[in-house]
Amino acid sequence: MKKRALITGITGQDGAYLAKFLLEQDYEVYGLRRRTSLPNEDRLSYLGVFDHVRLLEGEILDESSVMTAVRAVEPHEVYNLAAQSFVGASWRQPLLTAQSTGVGAVNVLEAVRLLRPNARVYQASSSEMFGLVTDRTQSETTKFYPRSPYAAAKLFAHWMTINYRESYRMFACAASCSITSRRFGAWNSSRARLPMAWPASSWGYSRSSYWGISMPSETGDLPATM
User: Are the C-beta atoms of 181 and 202 separated by less than 8 Å?
Assistant: First the structure.
């Protein structure tokens, strides 16, 4: 029987690449997406996986729609990538950021706890949680020092994931990584330079592991002028 994965934020860069990776591992992939007036599946189409994933309409801020998705999919793994992830915008919309990035993660954790307690949950954290770094070098013991509403919301989600794991004995982990590609949002300065510096066939992400599955590491050549 194929494993089933539910991805929130599947139409974003990370969600689309994760969907592609899981499909290659012979998963059934489902995605929770908000209803929008304009299509936003361009990343899934670019990677050639749009026709192979099953999209469910829902909103991470709406606990009932998250629970409906978990109940319908009965996932073995849940990846929460959905968030209001624009750091600058988080200062203009601090409450929305707190709700979508922070409370939204709790909606996912709670839905899994109540309906699918044996499922494995991945919460996407962020390097922004470290913010104002006080040490010259960073390690696993570097203290968190969030410096924006987005970072504070991510830190809340991070610690709630840990608390759900320790209190309810759920398989829940929170980790962060840096990733960029031609499918990154146009607001990002590094993405804006990628068409000049990175061939269309190249993209990169850090070597990581999702519960024993080793993800390959592919990088393009980035000239020093970038």
Answer: no
